[in-house]
Design brief:
mainly alpha
């Protein structure tokens, strides 16, 4: 426990990041979990709501300029979420001794 877990913590954090990023990025998994909706749902526990990948796809398929801009904005939010998660986990699992 004292040798293996500290050594493997960076690899485990990377595996966690990659699995969450894959789950967020793939459309099938969030669709099965969250469903799909064509309206704004303010209560996530009562009705289905769109996932970001589905929103990006629906907005991009319309070929309207404002919808495409919204799709790229949603893709940027998705990218920032995954990048932020990656940075936070890397900071939590870094070597605390200061040496590499």
């Amino acid at each position: 426990m004292r040798v293996v877990l500290p050594t493997a913590s960076a690899g485990l954090a990377t595996a966690l990041i990659l699995s969450i990023a894959r789950g967020i990025g793939e459309t099938a998994i969030p669709l099965l979990v969250s469903g799909a909706s064509s309206f704004m749902n303010t209560n996530p526990f009562s009705n289905p709501m769109n996932s970001l990948p589905l929103f990006i796809y629906d907005a991009y398929v319309t070929h309207e300029p404002i919808a495409i801009e919204r799709a790229f904005g949603a893709a940027s939010v998705l990218l920032i979420m995954v990048l932020g998660l990656f940075v936070v986990l890397r900071l939590l699992t870094r070597d605390r001794k200061g040496t590499r």
